[in-house]
Amino acid sequence: SHSLPAVNNDKIGQAIDSLQSALHLIKAASNQSGPWVDARHLLDETVAALDDAGLALQCQPLRNSVDMTRQFNTDEHHIRELADEVVNKRQRFLGGSLIHDTDGIWTKSVYGECDGFSFGTENDELYRVPDEEKKEKALIVYASQNGATKTFAKHLCKSLGGDTYCDLRNMSGIMAKDLAMYKRVYIVCNTSGLGRPPCDGEVFYSHVQLEAMRCQENLEDLAIGDGDEEKPLAGTSVAIAVWVDSSSPDYAKFGLGLTEELVSLGASTALKTITVDE
């Protein structure tokens, strides 16, 4: 039998280790009893693992024996299976949007050279809405695990004039671009501590974190600096109240983190983040 060149064994082993490490990170992110995993870190780690996979597939030598072909086919299949699992499982947090990898080694190894490959669409993109086009109605967003914040959100909507003056939405059904359509946004949600949003707020929070990263990169590319007036949530005022268990570690971390991310996207704060001890 023929042995494989060491360099390719190394790259195959590295790819498998990277993909398995990425899957462990996704599993940790899914653990409701564990701390929140920043979506930017999750994206970086999974993209790096997929690039290692693409590099391993690209750097294989010519197969000059049946044994080598059989072994490579087994390795290729394993790498592709792991890579597909990473892509599919990360969508729970990263969704389908914002994962643009047109220059990635994995994309090129699987799809070849292309002008653009994206998991998202233009409809997913967050952009600046002129003040005169923003809705006068207030947007009330809630995310609840026990119903308390949903009940509060309904009372808030009623106190502000009801459906005529407010839109009431569950956090699981919105994205950051929806906030940009309003002048006033109220967010009420609970947290389990450890910086985690409630389950129906996980995709929204991940999306906001990725949008904050993209916004910063765009400003740097345009050499605008801080450029608050150019940020996508400029002209939108937010107020956030979070129901917490103050006995939990980092009980206020999610509420404060969400506020920080939205401000980085250009939103102003109507008041400081409120924490309500359950």
From TrEMBL:
- Which PROSITE patterns does the entry mention? FLAVODOXIN, FLAVODOXIN_LIKE
Instruction: Extract the coiled-coil ranges from the record.
Output: none
Protein's name according to its UniProt entry: Flavodoxin-like domain-containing protein
Flavodoxin-like domain sequence ranges? 138-278
> What superkingdom does the record give?
Eukaryota
Q: Which GO terms describe its molecular function?
A: electron transfer activity; FMN binding
